[in-house]
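Batch job 17 of 40 flagged for manual review because the log was empty.
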Amino acid sequence: MALSYSIREGLAGFWRAKFAAVAATSAMTVALVLVGLFVVVGYQAQQVSGWLRQRVGQLNVMLDEQASDDDAQQIMERARLLPGVDEVEYVSPEEAQKRFRRAFGEGAEIYYEEPFLPASVEVRVGPTYASSDSLNSLISEVKTWARVEEVVFNQPLFARVQQNLRLITWGGVSLGALVVLASIFLVANTIRLTVYARRLLIRTMKLVGATDRFIRRPFVIEGMLQGLIAGVVASGILWGLYQLAASYVPGLEALGGLWLAIGVVVVSGVLLGWIGSFFAVRRFIKNVALH
């Protein structure tokens, strides 16, 4: 009975104080759009950083001159069984020469007569396995294989990329924390104003003997409704901004993250409405004067 009353009052309160409800919902919408944008950018940054670590952490297994096609095939099969290996590709001397020409352009003309680079096997590990310790462990093992002359790995470049990615990650986390804190502050203050506008109602309910929990429940339900509406509106805005950005940035949709952000936005809206209204009402219930 009390719960059904609280739900009815929460819904009625949303329509009864339309201006306050619109103000709180608008504030939450702005905050949730910021949170959603951060989730999308953060998710896609992780995808790009994983791809970058995977490419920079590539191992080039150089085969000796006596290695046959069967030897190369065996090495590829063994490489696929190594922990963390994601892709394995054979590069013939002819293909290596073509890549050399594309990389150096006109300066490579003196090497056009015949292939001079050895055959190799390119080994790429998964993003979660792309670390210095893991790669060095793989290198130590592959070097012991027959028909392997050398394993090439650009350790300085990989270390520099790892360091830059760590700086970017910490910068993103700091910025995200500021966005979340600003969102909570904005929403809490807006909801506090809407509750303050109905302080006389709270005082009247306390005078007739209503418990704090009974008084608080309709406001909390109203806040959660406001948060849900704000989450849906913010999701629509986020979807529109994402589609607009995807029309200008090719390949953006392939990175994903939109639906994750929409889920986070809707859930965060309900939580923000609940937390903001809960603490705002509790403060006024404790401080309201009965005389």
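Reviewer: the log was empty due to a logging misconfiguration, but the result itself is present. The chain has two domains: 2-51+162-287, 58-153. Unflagging and moving on to job 18.
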